[in-house]
Amino acid sequence: MLGIRKGPEPQDLKVYREKTPKATYKGFQETKSVRDQLYADQGGLCAYCMRKVQYDPSMSKGDREQILDFTIEHWSPQSTTDRGLHWPDMLGVCNGRLVVQGELEYICDKARGNLVLTVHPARDHATIEGLCSYLRDGTLCLHGKAEDEQTLNLNAKNLRASRKIVADVIAQKTMKADITALQQQLQRWEGRDSEGCRLEYAGVALYLLRKAIRQRESKGNRIRKTSKKQS
What we know:
Elements: H1 11-19, H2 31-41, H3 64-69, E1 71-74, E2 90-93, E3 97-100, E4 103-106, H4 108-112, H5 128-131, E5 132-134, E6 140-142, H6 146-151, H7 157-174, H8 179-190, H9 202-230
Antiparallel strand pairs: 1-2, 3-4, 5-6
Helix pairs in contact: 7-9, 8-9
């Protein structure tokens, strides 16, 4: 997962919530403005698995296929709370389906159903990336939040395989790189392209690059300490 800094509440949502008697999410029709803001906030990635979602903010309102691929997720289950129109609880997620060679896996909100989560990518944006570590085989370890990892099925086989591709690329780039080169790579993975989109599975690369930088810095400190003692 990546930390998400949410932008302002869409005006359509705010007006509907404040002006409509007994307003409910089911009755809210202008969902495109919400999707557009979530897409911008999240850099075009799913809030949970970091897959790139197939969504074009310039699409017409009625493009059903793209709407289905980018779902508005309610962090607090609508079935058990009255927070359906609560902007801080809204996240954008993928379609929740992975199909490879005829094998279907459910992930993210499709795996979750109405189960309760404890970690919130937006509310916990400052700390969430520190909870996540990734192994070379693509396995995610959500430290202290293993129940969320299982609820969202974030270690589905096909997700692990996709994250492993990124991990392998970073392993090659960090093998002989110095700190300057690693920091340049880090900036690339932290950034966005000209359309505001982030690189798919960016959290994997960020974790591995930061780890490599810490290791280089630690090695440099040991060398300097040894040199001082010898002098």
